[in-house]
Specification:
- The protein is about 50% helix and about 15% strand.
- By secondary structure, the chain is an alpha+beta fold.
- This is Glycine--tRNA ligase beta subunit.
Length: about 700
């Protein structure tokens, strides 16, 4: 089967810079998925994306689908012919529906008798006949929240479309798509090459654009050009280091086709403003990269990336400097104004701001969080007074001018303003650290005051929203309670805090009035414990280990984590599968014989067989050894020790009849098994682990 390269390029008005890479990836995946479903063989797939185009090149694309054998089963032979051997209506109807005669059918022998079948080979369709449909289908399924129309057309897309290239080898596939007739002509850079360019073959695509059109079509190549250019310029011009925000880098890459880094300056007086405010202003509004010294101090410099190679770059730099000046002046003005009012004087201003209609204002939430944070601080050996103070001030920066203008500075500015007000260092730091972790793998609060506040704030939201019947559902989680739960778990585990979720949630529930749901604290704890599954999945620990521990419902996250790690280590032991199987067998036996009503007091005088005497002795020895370990939370060593029971347990089930005719003997054996089972249950239900055989 012959193979050729394929190229499709859609030319558009400037695409949204933040959406460019996701749209390009989705476009590429849509086409490759379509090829796979159509059964068309292909080689390397390459994506291209600039502000004015999305393109996909498929190497070594087969020129047709493979031929496919087709088999359609008709009536059974018994039903296909009458007593005289003539075709029945069932047979003639089947043959007619396929456009064949009965004698063109084959016979298929099966266990259930003989059947008539029609066999043929369905010829694969030419690739050129399929590609337009695959491209159109991929475009239609792109993740575009809101499509637009333009002119008198009924076509809809994220931006107006202007041209379309579609080549298979050197042949144009000219089936119209989105109102455009494909060709082999693309457009160069809007300013450097505002004319059409011929793409002879797919192989020539990015070469023609770069050498003739002033367009770097490869997103990844352009991204690295910008990165290296920005870094080199900052070092060469100022001996500084450009700080590369990866999200900003993607956005800037989505803004340029022919990137040219340029360095500009701003007035040193603006360095008196917190660096985060300057950075936010530069990144959010101007898409600039900031520059720091070798010591990490911010320099009065920025690097911008122009989409034009100007003959007079100083004019471009000057223009950017003029634009950034009022932005930084605004930040300085907000900062100076905000410092005139202490954070504690802003607490009353939180009263009109609604947190949630049924749960009151941000002020109400602050009062509740303060009460809860005090109790949590005391439980973790921190200062309750500092935790209470931090909680009452925690949301006050929401009503500062700086945060109203730059919402991403919430918490960061609170820390600056609290320090400026002379608040204790722990209180100031908690203003920012209350939001940690903000995302997966983010850092955690560094002080106990911050930990107490961060946990209290999240638990207040969880308990309040569950208490009014508004837990997360499906993909709907407007208050980010899943993230809040994982944040609490991470803080408690990784900061090794001796907190019990049930106790903490009950403390939180006491601060509310008007909750409508029953068992709110327990429901929140169940929800949070379920989040452990994703937590351990990210760490490569299987669901069966999580489920074994979860079955015991330990409500102290640090204890839960120690159990999981102990069970994961136990699972690697050679005895683990056999003991898991034995525990499953024991669990089944006990559940049929009364479950919890079965005691664990073993009468040594009723032990008869050597195997049960050995097991009873071994269980006694292990109990003396591991119970102190359980009490210390040393689950790993306890399970390691219990693994030695595999041989006596196996011998017991091989040589001893549990359900003896003598009731006393039988009950004694059940008690022995129950005692054995309960030793393991002090850690987890290991019967839920994979078993041997």
């Amino acid at each position: 089967m012959a193979k050729q390269d394929f190229l499709v390029e859609l030319g558009v008005e400037e695409l949204p810079s933040k959406a460019l890479k996701p749209l390009s990836d989705a476009f590429t995946q849509g086409i490759t998925k379509g090829l796979e479903e159509a059964g068309i063989a292909f080689g390397k797939v390459e994506a291209f994306a600039t502000p004015r185009r999305m393109a996909v090149r498929i190497r070594d694309l087969a020129d047709a689908q493979p031929d496919k054998p087709v088999e359609k089963r008709g009536p059974a032979v018994k039903a296909a012919f009458d007593d005289s051997g003539n075709p029945t209506r069932a047979l003639t109807g089947f043959a007619t529906s396929l456009g064949v005669t009965p004698d063109q059918l084959d016979t298929l022998e099966t266990d259930k008798g003989a059947w008539l079948v029609y066999r043929t080979v369905e010829q694969g369709k030419p690739t050129v006949d399929l590609m337009s449909g695959l491209v159109e289908q991929s475009l239609a399924s792109l993740p575009i929240p809101k499509r637009m129309r333009w002119g008198a057309r009924r076509t809809e897309f994220v931006r107006p479309v202007h041209w379309l290239v579609m080549l298979f080898g050197n042949k144009v596939i000219d089936t119209p798509i989105m109102g455009l007739t494909p060709g082999n002509k693309t457009m160069g850079h809007r300013f450097h090459c505002p004319k059409t360019l011929i793409i002879p073959t797919p192989t020539d695509y990015e070469v023609v654009l770069e050498q003739e059109g002033y367009v770097i079509a490869d997103f990844a190549k352009r991204r690295e050009m910008i990165r290296s250019g920005v870094i080199a310029l900052a070092e060469a011009e100022a001996g500084g280091k450009a700080v590369i925000n990866e999200d900003l880098l993607d956005e800037v890459t989505g803004l340029n086709e022919w990137p040219v880094p340029l360095i500009g300056r701003f007035d040193k007086r603006f360095l008196e403003v917190p660096a985060e405010a300057l950075i936010s202003s530069m990144e959010e509004h101007q898409k600039y990269f900031h520059v720091v010294s070798t010591d990490g101090d911010m320099l009065p410099l920025f690097v911008t990336v122009a989409n034009i190679d100007s003959k007079d770059p100083s004019q471009v730099i000057s223009g950017n400097e003029k634009v950034i000046r009022p932005r930084l002046a605004d930040a300085a003005f907000f900062y100076e104004n905000d410092r005139k009012i202490r954070l504690e004087d802003r607490i009353e201003r939180l009263k009109p701001i609604v947190f949630q209609e049924k749960l009151g204002s941000i002020y109400d939430k602050s009062v509740r969080v303060a009460a809860l944070a005090q109790k949590i601080a005391a439980a973790i050996g921190s200062d309750p007074a500092l935790a209470e103070r931090a909680a009452m001030l925690a949301k006050t920066d929401l009503v500062t001018e700086m945060v109203l203008e730059f919402s991403d500075l919430q918490g960061i500015m609170g820390q600056y303003y609290a320090a400026d007000d002379g608040e204790p260092a722990d209180v100031a730091k908690a203003m920012n650290e209350q939001y940690m972790p903000r995302f997966a793998k983010d850092g955690l609060p560094t002080t106990m005051t911050s930990c107490a506040l961060a946990i209290a704030d999240r638990l207040d939201s969880l308990v309040g929203l569950f208490g009014i019947g508004q837990p997360p559902s499906g993909t709907r989680d407007p208050f980010a309670l899943r993230r809040a739960s994982l944040g609490v778990l991470r803080i408690i585990i990784e900061r090794e805090l001796p907190l019990d979720l049930q106790t903490c949630c009950e403390w939180a529930e006491e601060n509310f009035s008007g909750l409508t749901e029953d068992n709110t604290a327990s429901n929140v704890v169940d929800y949070m414990l379920d989040r452990f599954r994703a937590y351990y999945d990210e760490r490569g620990i299987g669901a069966e280990v999580f489920l074994a521990v979860h079955a015991r419902r330990p409500t102290r996250p640090l204890d839960f984590d120690r159990r999981v790690k102990a069970v994961e280590a136990f699972r690697q032991l050679p005895e683990a599968q056999a003991l898991a199987g034995a525990n499953k067998r024991v669990s089944n036996i006990l559940s049929k014989q009364g479950g919890d009503s079965v005691g664990e007091n073993v009468n040594s005088n009723l032990l008869q067989d050597a195997a049960e005497k050995t097991l009873a002795a071994q269980v006694d020895q292990q109990a003396d050894k591991v119970i102190p370990l359980f009490e210390q939370g040393n689950y790993a060593n306890a399970l390691q020790s219990l693994a030695s029971l595999q041989e006596p347990v196996d011998s017991f089930f091989t040589e001893v009849m549990v359900m003896a005719e003598d009731d006393a003997v039988r009950d004694n054996r059940l008690a022995l098994l129950n005692r054995l089972h309960n030793l393991f249950l002090r850690v987890a239900d290991i019967s839920l682990l994979p078993t041997a055989g």
